[in-house]
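Assemble and predict.
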Amino acid sequence: MSKIVVKDLVKIFGDHPEKAIKLLRKGYSKNKILEESNQTVGIYDINFSVNEGEVFVLMGLSGCGKSTLLRCINRLIEPTSGTITIDGEDITTATPQAVREMRRKKISMVFQGFALFPHRTVLDNVAYGLEIQGITVEQRREKAAQVLETVGLKGWENSMPQQLSGGMQQRVGLARALANNPDILLMDEAFSALDPLIRKSMQDELLSLHNTLNKTIIFVTHDLDEALKIGDHIALMNNGTIVQIGTAEDILTNPADDYVEKFVEDVDRTKVLTAEGVMKSPDPVVFLRDGPRVALRLMREHGISSIFVVTRERKLAGILLAEDALQAVKEHKEDIKSIIVSDVPKVGVDTPVIDIIPVIADTKFPVAVTREDDKLAGILVKGSVLAGMVRRGNNID
Amino acid sequence: MTKLPIGLWVEFIVEWAQIHLEWLFDFITMVIKLLVSGIETIFLAVPPLIIIVLVFILVWFVANRGLAIGTAIGLFLIQNMQLWEASIETLALILASTALALVMGIPLGILTARSDFAHKLMMPLLDFMQTMPAFVYLIPAVLFFGLGQVPGLFATVIFAMPPTIRLTGLGIRQVPAELVEAADAFGSTEWQKLVRIQVPLALPTIMAGVNQCIMLSLSMVVIAAMIGAGGLGTEVLAGLSRIDIAKGFEGGLAIVIMAVILDRVTQSLTEKRKIKV
C-alpha cells in the first residue's frame, strides 16, 4: 500500500511563483526561468509514491532539490503547487494546527548536522518531541531512556550532546526522531557528516532498526553507494526533478538517461548486482527421468561438457559430467541418478556478485542459481559474471 | 532657502503630548516613583554592614572569591566616604531603569528577530536613540515629568535600552537555522520554540545586552543628576560647580566602584551560561 503519494509537486522560490509556473509549462529550463522571471525553480514535476514500510531514497548531487523535496513532505517548506497525500490525506491543504499535529505524531526528521539542542542533555534532547506535546517529565524521560537504549546509548542520558562523538550524536538524533513513535522518518543526509566507517555501521544499524520497527523511511543522500545499499526504491534527482525511479538494480542495469548512466558509472557493481542479474537461463537441463543418451545429445548440441539435472518440479538434483554420461552409455546404464554429482556449488538468486566470485573461482563446474524453494533459476559461468559487471544492458546471454 | 522648522515640529509634538497625555505621564510617574523608592527603602532599611556581607556572599557565589573580596573593599570605601545613601539612590535608579529597559527591550529585540519588517523599522530608530546626545532627552523628560528621579529614569531608559534590543535580536537570529528547523520539525508552537530553544541559546548574547544596559545606565548617572535625579551624580555635579576636586573625585570613584562591581558580576553570569551551553 502506498503510504505517501506525491503528485505534480512544484516549489518555486520567489515572489511571483505563477510567472515561473507559466514558463515551466512552456518547457523553459530552470536557468532560463531564473533569467526571465527572477524566480528560482526548486523542484518541479515531482511524482512518486512510497510504500508503507519501505526505505525510499532521494538521491542526487547538491542543489538538485532533494532536501527541498524532503522538507515539502513535512511542510517545513511550503510547496507551490501539487499534492502530497499521506495515508489518503492531502497535507498540502492542512491547517497549521494539523501540520503541527502531524509533525508531533506522524513524521519525524533526522538532520545532516544532527541539530541537537546544545543546552539540553541527551535525554532531554530525545524527550523534546514528547515535551512539547505536554507529556509529563517522568513519562517522557522514561520513554526517551527506552529509545536511547534501542540505539545503543544507554548510560549517556545525562551527557551533553557535544561530549559525544559524531556517530553517537546522530544516534541521539535518530532516537529523538523515534521517541514520538512516528510512522514516517525523514532523514536528510543523515549520515553524510560521519566518517566512512561510522557511516557504514550506522547504515547497517538503520537497516536492522528498520527491520524491527518497520517505519516508512525517506532518506536523502548524495552518496550512490549509500542509496544502493539502503534503498528499496531510489529516486534519482537532477536539476529539480526526478529522472529515474527504481530499485538499485533497475538503475544500474537500465539507466534512464546519460545523467544516470554517468552517475552509476563508478559504482562497485559487485556489491549491487545479484546472481539474478548476471545469470544465464538454465537451458539446457536434463530431467532425472531422462537417460544418459539424452544428456549426451544435449551436451553435444550445446557444446558443453556438463549439464544440470533437475527433478520434475525443476528442483536442482545435481550435475552430470560428459565423461560420466559416456561411461554410463558404454555400460548400458539407463538411470542417471547414480552417476550425477549432487554436491554442486549453488547460490541464491539474491546473492551479490561479490560473494559469487569466490564460489566460481573454487569450482570447475558452472554454479547453479536457485530460488528459495531450491528450484533452478539459472546458471553462472565465469564469462557471464564478468559480462554482467561490465555491461549496462540486462540482455546478458 | 528657507529653514525647515524641524525643531518647531518636535516642540509641537512634545507640547501636544504634554497636554493630551498628561494622565499617562502621571501614571508613569506614579509607577516609577513607587519602584525607585521601593528599592531605595529596602536597601536603606538594612544596615550597610549587612548589605556588604550579603553582597560579598552573593558575588563569591556567582563569580569568585577575588571579586568578592574586591567588592567588599569597594563597598567599605563607599561607606567610608559617606556616600552610602547617595550610592543607594543611584543603585535604585540604575536597577529600576535597567529593569524597565529589559522589560521593554527584550520583547522588542525578540520582535526584531522574528520580523524583518520590525527589524528594518527598529534599526534606524536605535541608531537615532544611541547617537542623539543624551542631554537632548532631558528636555522632553523635564516637560513630561518635571524635575527629579522620574525624568532622570526616563532619559536613562531611552539611552540604555538600544543595546538590549540589538543584542537580544542578534542573539536570536544567531541561533543556528538547523536547530530552529529541528524545533519546527517536531511540531513546536512558536512560543515553545522561542522559550525552549531560541531564548536559552541566545542567552549569552542577551546577557551581554543586559551588561551593556547597566553600563549605559551608569553613564547617565551624572547627566540625569542635572535634572534632579539625585544620587552620586549630584555629588559629582556639586564638585564641578564648586570646582571642588575632592568632592568630585570621591563621587566619581564611587560610581567607578559600582560600575566595576555590576559589570564583573553580570559578566560572570554570562560566562557561566556560556560554559553550560
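The interface with chain B takes residues 74, 76, 100-105, 108-109, 111-113, 115, 117-119, 128-129, 131-133, 176, 180, 186 of chain A (CB under 8 Å).
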